[in-house]
Design brief:
Layout lengths: L10 E9 L1 H4 L10 E7 L1 E2 L2 E2 L12 H7 L1 H5 L1 H7 L5 E8 L5 E3 L3 H8 L6 E8 L4 E6 L5 H9 L7 E5 L5 E4 L5 E3 L3 E8 L5 E4 L41 E5 L4 E14 L6 E14 L2 E6 L3 E4 L5 E14 L2
Antiparallel strand pairs: 1-2, 2-5, 3-4, 5-12, 6-13, 7-10, 7-12, 8-9, 8-11, 14-15, 15-19, 16-17, 16-18, 16-19
Length: 320
Amino acid sequence: MKFYPLQFTPILKGRIWGGNKLNTVLNKSITADANGESWELSTVKGDVSIVANGKWKGKSLMDLINEYPTDILGTEVYQRFGKEFPLLFKYLDAKEDLSIQVHPNDSLAKARHGSFGKTEMWYIIQADLNSHIIAGFKEHSNSDLYLEHVKNNTLLSTLNEVEVKSGDAFFIESGTVHSIGAGLVVAEIQQTSDVTYRLYDFDRIDSAGIKRELHVDLALEAINYNSLDTKIEYSKETNFPNELVSCPYFTTNFIPLDGQVAIVKSKQSFTVYMCVEGSFELTYDDVKVDYNKGDTVLIPASMNSFSINGKASILEIYIS
């Protein structure tokens, strides 16, 4: 069986805080005025990615995994997760601030929702002047203080606000109170989970004049009340996989590509490339495929030898 690099039809999500930069910055074919997310690679129930290229065009990612589990996922990933695809890949456009939120860890998410937890990372693709994120508390807190500040509408004053620029990266472990601020386009790599506890939503109302639901009490057990350093310091050596994150859920490298790089992988994990700047060409078995800014491609685990060539900034993600 000949496997090949797989691209998928983006699953576009309208969000109250979204804008149009998924189109203007990342070349997505959006139609709504407030598109907040492009789910590039997903097996979340109801939002399973569909292949957009090659002989398997029109098949779902789950169909391929069920038919060729080790070839797609890799031997080690299949051993750990069975036929579940453990990661979710997104691009986000925050025209306005996202809600202040938190995600539960694996044990809490499994007990409450039958789901993975949600540890994630962000890579800032584009940032307007003075844009910021929120990540964690300024100082160590606790559940009583948290509830008091929610009651007094002063939660924002306790949270750590960080000014950001293009190229910044952040590791947001489950339990970290966080928000992506207005004016940011972000690549997000996360566990396969859509469980979010919303703590504060800036008193916004939706198109029906209704405020979105908050989950203040559900979040009590989920929150890590410590002060956290979430910003990632990383190298930018050309034509080299500079490590951003290595955690039990995923490894992410940053590759500043300028020329050609030969890549040889084990067959233990799939690899995903997200092109966050420029363009590159991937060559395998004398076949060449072009990718541009905003493209995401899944390399099946059985495709363990290929090369990339071009001038681009690429996120490389796999499970180790």
